[in-house]
């Protein structure tokens, strides 16, 4: 039935990994393009090297149903696809079994394999290069063989040999002469160099003496400079002292101000207290003469506090000078 | 949450499996193109052949008659195939077959030209709908007789579903989704849903949402009106199956080598890649913990939902396996592992108790002691919902609803006509310490209210009736039973508050509920006080005292704290509102926690325990008008005049203050109560109070002030006093409005009675004097200190 076939086809193609999604509605209308695409894709699955022409206009297909490219063609395509699908399903189950069998095997040492691979590759290239050179050399052999045979066939003559020996003797003699000449020249070179060294040494001594004399001389402004330096030092000390004094005095002033402030507050407090007491006594139940006593006490206290604060304020100044 | 899938090494079917369905909580049947029906038992892990189909039969769909309907519907339809023993199978040859549980074919009909692609029982089990390659949608009786052809299209119908109330059918043709009512001559809703062919859809009977999936490799979530709520990202392959879980909290999506578990909003919990080919059908078990899926390469896979995680205060419980829960106390990182004999179906943790329901038993643990749970056996063993409250919890089973205390004592089992407990969800049932509220399943405008202590229906068994279909209900959690409020969100997403208990004579049911918000997407009552958090349109609102609508309508908008809900994205839902913290789940599944002011909570605590002076102090300290408005509402409700006066003056409601002062000077308690009722707008209450206390004159005067002339005259005649007073005021009123008398009874009495203002004045003065005397006596009686 059409629906079931379509459903199976879409499922199979999805499972096989067909790159395009096939809709259930794709074959409601004849869809030649898609059938052709699918067929060529499927053929490629079977035989990857085959090359079908892509232009479908000229394509001749034999199966009449396939040519309709509608629901009927789906059946035909399924015949092809199901072979692959069943194979894949079998494969998956086999794989599952295999995996379980091999899962307990130890893992391979891939490092050594990689090394081997590299070696093999190197050897392979070596073989080819060797082969190539061998081939080249063998190609040259034809030419070389002729020359070799020529050379081997030639006769040797006595006069030629004698001449060659004489020439070589002469050249060796010339070499010896040049070497002897060089040996003689060595002594004169030596004397020459020693004279040069002597000259340089004298020059060095002279220069050193000059340096010593220059060091001994004292510049004319030096005395004045030293004197001024001493003056400056004294002046700086004095400045420091004065600055310190000023800072101290400023601190004293601050302290005085504070003391003044404290005293003022104390006085205010005392006055308030007095006022309060007076008020109490005025409104008190027994207006007695004792009221004056309290007031006097408060005043006395105030005086005492005043003198104490003054004394306290002056002591540090005296001691510091 | 994720799926734990299990499948066999060897496929039991040799060809493509096209459909699966659950027979019972532990049995599944699967049908494949190899013409075999297999039965899988999950407990014993056995597979046995169930039946053999004829060679020229290639199945496309299978569906068991819905459980729970079996007994009732079976007895109704006489002569039809009996009960839940029947299932339907559709075939690629266009046949619709009914097969009984012994594998014998009961009925076989030629349903469609070409393939019959899909067949579904209605939720009540009364009918079947099929869709075919010829584009027809046909409705059949439960015995397989053709009732009608609902629709005919040019394109094949690949998928369809019944609406939750079985009155509409949703079907997919090409790229379109159509909701077609069964009633003839009614207009269908149709919309373009996908970019490619739609292959599958499902409509949840619990949350009314629709999911669809198609060849554009996306799945989408819609609401019942066809508004898109979620659009998934593109997958690699077409979506071949979608399925809602029974409780509507989750759904599963199947594609080629893909199984996805999603939340009802649409975001994905987990993704599995089983090597199974396309998943042609996914079916959830009735308890919502497992799915079975039919695979393209002959496998049937089963997946179990695990790693469900719930939290309460410092405890965190995770379902780690089919029978294990691990518990963690996050403050000291103590771990606890709980093992069960049977499969876990539902868990819930709240109010200090962990409730675990397995297939046969219910375990109640307290958070103080994990070693000795209270255990009791379940009556049926298929719990679909647990709703906890502070003193007890509700178990919703497939045929009944039971209320248990935490000592495992059965308190009651409320019943109502036409109950279908398996479709109840947390939005349609609500529980608090003294009340159970359940939305009716046949008429969605009704809410059944039960007393939690004895299971009896409240208000003489009459359900609360709303104007519109109700989408969501929620009861407030604290406070007195007689002030229990029910929050209702109806089909138009308007938010209403209703009084659960009615006292005295209420003129109409509508006077008992009041609208307080619109466009509400999600709402939640506070667990500790009666605050209500709601997401309205793009605003996040906290109703500090929703009951204020029954006290002083004008105060409502002053007791709402509003803020922008932009941080929560589109379509957020409030999952938790406890203390002053609120957890909101965004549409993408992330949880956002936010806070509201802690002061309203404190204020409620004070007012609950009648510490009015402390409540006033708190408001003075915070200096927030919203809080003052709350206090005004609460104190007026509680008829605490001093606090009401202070708080009304703080929010500058001079008229109210004035009136309260007037009330305070009234001599009798009854008159004060009546005037308070008038202040809150309950004129009916006020009149009742006055008449009961014998203050007839005041009752008459009240009606005169309200211009309820006929009622005033009725009272006067009935009690034979002040007829002339009523007439005098009427004349005065008519003169002022320059109108003629139209009420016949007044015309009649006008002739009989003379109007003498002086005498009337004297009479009124006398009444007031009498009242003062009464008040004086009452005062002397009431207070012993002079």
The end-to-end distance of chain B, rounded to whole angstroms, is 71 Å
Question: How many beta-strand segments of chain A?
Answer: 0
If you average the pLDDT of chain A, what whole number results? 80
Helices of chain B, by number, come to 13
- Give the CATH level 1 class of the largest domain in chain A: Mainly Alpha
Shape of chain B: elongated
User: What is the structural class of chain A?
Assistant: mainly alpha
How many domains make up the 3D coordinates of chain A?
A: 3
Distance between the termini of chain A: 124 Å
CATH architecture of the largest domain in chain A: Orthogonal Bundle
CATH class of the domain at 2-306 in chain B: Mainly Beta
Structural class of chain B: alpha+beta
If helices are DSSP runs of H or I spanning 4 or more residues, what is the number of helices of chain A?
Answer: 8
Helix content of chain B: 10-25%
Largest sheet of chain B: 4 strands, antiparallel
Radius of gyration of chain B: 32 Å
Question: Can you tell me about this structure?
Answer:
The complex is a heterodimer of chains A (321) and B (786). The relative contact order of chain A is 0.03. The longest helix of chain A has 62 residues, at 222-283. Chain A is built from 8 helices and no strands. Chain A has helices at 2-16, 32-46, 64-68, 71-102, 110-153, 158-216, 222-283, 290-320. By secondary structure, chain A is mainly alpha-helical. Among the domains of chain B are: 2-306, YVTN repeat-like/Quinoprotein amine dehydrogenase (Methylamine Dehydrogenase, Chain H), CATH 2.130.10.10; 694-782, no CATH class. Chain B starts with a strand and ends with a helix. In chain B, β33 and β34 (353-358) form a beta hairpin. Chain B has a 4-stranded antiparallel β-sheet, with no helix packed on it. In chain B, strands 2-3-4-5 form a 4-stranded antiparallel β-sheet, with no helix packed on it. In chain B, strands 6-7-8-9 form a 4-stranded antiparallel β-sheet, with no helix packed on it. Chain B is α+β, with helices and mostly antiparallel strands and 786 residues long. The interface between A and B is medium-sized, with 17 and 30 residues.
């Amino acid at each position: 039935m059409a629906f079931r076939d379509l459903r199976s086809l879409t499922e199979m193609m999805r499972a096989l990994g067909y790159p395009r999604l096939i809709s259930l509605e794709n074959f409601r209308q004849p869809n030649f393009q898609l059938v052709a695409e699918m067929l060529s894709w499927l053929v490629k699955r079977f035989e990857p090297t085959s090359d079908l022409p892509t232009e479908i206009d000229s394509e001749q297909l034999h199966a009449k149903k396939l040519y309709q490219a509608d629901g009927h063609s789906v059946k035909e395509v399924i015949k092809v696809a199901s072979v692959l699908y069943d194979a894949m399903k079998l494969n998956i189950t086999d794989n599952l079994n295999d995996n379980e069998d091999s899962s307990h095997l130890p893992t391979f040492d891939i490092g050594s394999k990689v090394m081997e691979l590299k070696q093999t590759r190197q050897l392979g290239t070596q073989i080819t290069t060797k082969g190539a050179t061998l081939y080249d050399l063998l190609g040259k052999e034809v030419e070389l063989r002729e020359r070799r045979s020529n050379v081997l066939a030639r006769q040797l003559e006595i006069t030629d040999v004698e001449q060659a020996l004489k020439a070589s003797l002469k050249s060796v003699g010339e070499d010896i002469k040049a070497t002897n000449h060089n040996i003689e020249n060595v002594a004169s070179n030596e004397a020459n160099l020693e004279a040069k060294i002597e000259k340089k040494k004298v020059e060095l001594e002279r220069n050193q003496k000059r340096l010593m004399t220059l060091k001994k001389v004292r510049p004319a402004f030096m005395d004045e400079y030293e004197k001024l330096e001493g003056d400056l030092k004294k002046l700086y000390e004095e400045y420091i002292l004065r600055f310190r004094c000023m800072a101290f005095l400023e601190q004293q002033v601050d302290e005085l101000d504070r003391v003044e402030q404290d005293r003022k507050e104390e006085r205010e407090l005392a006055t308030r207290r007095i006022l309060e007491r007076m008020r109490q006594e005025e409104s008190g139940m027994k207006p007695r003469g004792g009221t004056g006593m309290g007031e006097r006490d408060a005043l006395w206290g105030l005086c005492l506090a005043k003198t104490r604060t003054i004394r306290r304020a002056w002591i540090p100044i005296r001691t510091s000078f | 949450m994720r799926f734990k899938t299990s499948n066999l090494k060897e496929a039991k079917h040799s060809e493509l499996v096209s459909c699966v369905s659950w027979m019972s909580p532990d049995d599944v049947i699967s049908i494949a193109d190899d013409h075999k029906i297999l039965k899988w038992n999950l407990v014993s892990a056995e597979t046995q052949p169930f039946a053999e189909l004829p060679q020229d039969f290639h199945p496309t769909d299978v569906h068991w008659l819905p459980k729970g309907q079996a007994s009732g519907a079976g007895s109704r339809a006489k002569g039809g195939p009996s009960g839940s023993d029947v299932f339907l199978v559709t075939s690629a040859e266009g046949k619709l077959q009914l097969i009984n549980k012994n594998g014998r074919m009961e009925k076989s009909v030629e349903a469609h030209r070409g393939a019959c692609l899909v067949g579904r029982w209605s939720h009540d089990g009364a009918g079947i709908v099929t869709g075919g390659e010829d584009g027809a949608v046909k409705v059949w009786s439960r015995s397989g007789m053709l009732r009608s052809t609902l629709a005919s299209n040019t394109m094949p119908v690949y998928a369809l579903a019944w609406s939750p109330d079985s009155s509409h059918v949703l079907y997919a043709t090409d790229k379109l989704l159509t909701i077609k009512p069964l009633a003839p001559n009614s207009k269908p809703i149709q919309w373009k849903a996908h970019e490619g062919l739609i292959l599958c859809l499902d409509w949840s009977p619990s949350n009314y949402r629709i999911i669809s999936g198609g060849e554009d490799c996306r799945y989408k979530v819609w609401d019942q009106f066809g508004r898109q709520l979620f659009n998934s990202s593109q997958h690699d392959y077409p979506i071949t199956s979608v399925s809602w879980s029974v409780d509507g909290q989750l759904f599963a999506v199947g594609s080629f080598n893909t199984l996805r578990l999603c939340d009802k909003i649409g975001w994905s919990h987990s993704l599995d890649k089983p090597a199974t080919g396309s998943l042609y059908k996914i079916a959830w078990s009735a308890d919502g913990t497992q799915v079975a899926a039919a695979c393209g390469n002959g496998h049937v896979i089963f997946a179990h939902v695990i790693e469900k995680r719930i939290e309460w205060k410092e405890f965190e419980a995770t379902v780690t396996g089919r029978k294990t829960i691990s518990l963690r106390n996050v403050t000291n990182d103590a771990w606890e592992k709980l093992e069960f004999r049977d499969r876990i179906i539902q868990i819930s943790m709240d109010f200090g108790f962990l409730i675990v329901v397995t297939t046969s038993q219910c375990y109640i643990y307290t958070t103080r002691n994990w070693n000795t749970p209270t255990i009791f056996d379940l009556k049926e063993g298929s719990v679909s919902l647990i709703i906890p409250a502070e003193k007890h919890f509700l178990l919703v089973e497939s045929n009944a609803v039971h209320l248990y205390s935490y000592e495992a004592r059965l308190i009651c089992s409320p019943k109502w006509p036409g109950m279908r407990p398996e479709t109840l969800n947390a939005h349609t049932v609500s529980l608090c310490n003294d009340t159970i509220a359940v939305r009716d399943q046949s008429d969605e405008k009704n809410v059944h209210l039960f007393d939690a202590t004895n299971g009896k229906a409240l208000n003489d068994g009459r359900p609360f009736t709303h104007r519109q279909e109700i989408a969501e209900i929620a009861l407030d959690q604290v406070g007195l039973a007689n002030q229990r409020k029910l929050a209702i969100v109806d089909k138009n997403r308007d938010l209403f508050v209703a009084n659960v208990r009615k006292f005295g004579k209420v003129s109409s049911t509508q006077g008992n509920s009041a609208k307080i918000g619109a466009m509400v997407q999600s709402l939640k009552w506070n667990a500790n006080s009666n605050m209500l958090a709601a997401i309205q349109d793009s605003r996040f609102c906290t109703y500090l005292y929703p009951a204020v609508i029954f006290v002083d309508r004008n105060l409502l908008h002053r007791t709402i704290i509003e803020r922008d809900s932009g941080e929560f994205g589109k379509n957020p839902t409030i999952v938790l509102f406890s203390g002053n913290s609120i957890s909101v789940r965004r549409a993408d599944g992330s949880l956002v926690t936010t806070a509201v002011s802690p002061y309203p909570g404190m204020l409620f605590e004070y007012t609950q325990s009648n510490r009015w002076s402390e409540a006033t102090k708190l408001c003075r300290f915070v200096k927030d008008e919203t809080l003052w408005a709350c206090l005004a509402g609460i104190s007026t409700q509680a008829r605490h005049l001093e606090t009401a006066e202070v708080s009304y003056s703080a929010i500058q409601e001079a008229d109210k203050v004035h009136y309260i002062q007037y009330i305070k000077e009234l001599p009798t308690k009854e008159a004060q109560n009546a005037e308070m009722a008038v202040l809150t707008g309950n004129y009916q209450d006020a009149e009742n109070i006055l008449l009961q206390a014998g203050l007839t004159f005041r009752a008459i005067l009240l009606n005169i002030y309200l211009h309820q002339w006929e009622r005033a005259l009725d009272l006067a005649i009935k009690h034979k006093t002040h007829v002339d007073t009523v007439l005098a005021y009427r004349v005065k009123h008519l003169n002022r409005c320059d109108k003629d008398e139209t009420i016949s009874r007044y015309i009649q009495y006008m002739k009989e009675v003379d109007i003498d203002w002086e005498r009337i004045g004297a009479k009124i003065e006398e009444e007031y004097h009498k009242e003062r005397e009464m008040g004086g006596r009452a005062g002397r009686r009431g207070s012993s200190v002079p």
